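TASK: fixed-backbone design
INPUT:
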């Protein structure tokens, strides 16, 4: 098990929380964005088991300021996922992965459709060398994901399969630290859980603002729920994160 995976589990146990806080905060100036992100992180830190930062925050703040936020998170005892959905060819993916790992990130999301050989193989190897995590997408949360992750494909033996089933079987062989399946389709979570087995953490974004239900996703087999706007746009991120954490633990 990677250090990333055991740190999320530890934080989840200690805080009785399955919530990953997504920080996609928009502020006009870099300083205000940094201060707001740090404030939300501190307010919610007792009620979440991990933070997730996306590309907009990196573009606005720059990697060195983002790295300071990652350090703050580590001081709070929480790991940080970079939601970069790596999707280029291998040598470029590896360059980006190294930059994110050097900035302190504990795990990266990757686009499974890129494939393993010459695509994600070097990134997975790099993550293992550094004891970090890789989280491949198996089914995204938005409507249009049906066009790709949900399409019917022919497998090698000629049988018709759903793309996400094929992807779930494939990532199982990659020995990763978790997978991403949107919370908006509990029936897909259930099928993917059957394929990957009980030990692979499933991270599910798409609750509340995108229409997914925390409890339905949990009951279908999600391990961690990714929540962004419902917490960072609320007037009181501390109370809201505590309320959502409770929904998952009762
Ligand atoms: P909200 O504000 O909708 O934010 O709670 C959700 C967060 O999750 C990310 N997101 C996804 N990430 N696969 C992912 O890897 C997905 O299918 C997906 N859907 C949403 C989004 O970037 C935001 O940070």
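OUTPUT:
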């Amino acid at each position: 098990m990677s250090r990333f995976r055991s740190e999320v589990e530890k934080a989840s146990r200690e805080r009785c929380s399955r919530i990953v806080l997504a920080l996609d905060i928009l502020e006009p100036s870099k300083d205000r964005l940094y201060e707001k992100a740090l404030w939300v992180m501190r307010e919610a830190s007792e009620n979440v088991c991990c933070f997730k930062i996306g590309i907009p925050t990196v573009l606005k703040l720059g990697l060195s300021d983002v790295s300071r936020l990652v350090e703050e998170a580590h001081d709070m005892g929480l790991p940080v996922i970079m939601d970069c959905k790596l999707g280029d060819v291998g040598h470029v993916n590896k360059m980006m992965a190294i930059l994110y790992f050097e900035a302190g990130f504990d795990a990266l999301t990757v686009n499974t459709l890129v494939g393993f050989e010459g695509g994600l193989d070097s990134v997975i190897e790099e993550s293992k060398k550094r004891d970090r995590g890789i989280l491949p997408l198996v089914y995204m949360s938005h409507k249009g994901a049906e066009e790709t992750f949900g399409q019917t494909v022919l497998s090698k033996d000629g049988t018709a399969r759903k793309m996400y089933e094929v992807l779930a079987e494939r990532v199982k062989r990659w020995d990763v630290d978790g997978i991403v399946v949107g919370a908006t389709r509990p029936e897909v979570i259930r099928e993917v859980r059957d394929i990957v087995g009980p030990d692979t953490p499933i991270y599910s974004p798409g609750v509340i603002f995108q229409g997914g239900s925390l409890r339905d996703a949990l009951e279908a087999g999600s391990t961690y729920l990714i929540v962004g706007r419902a917490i960072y746009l609320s007037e009181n991120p501390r109370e809201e994160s505590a309320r959502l954490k409770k929904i998952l633990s009762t």
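COMMENT: The chain is about 50% helix and 20% strand.
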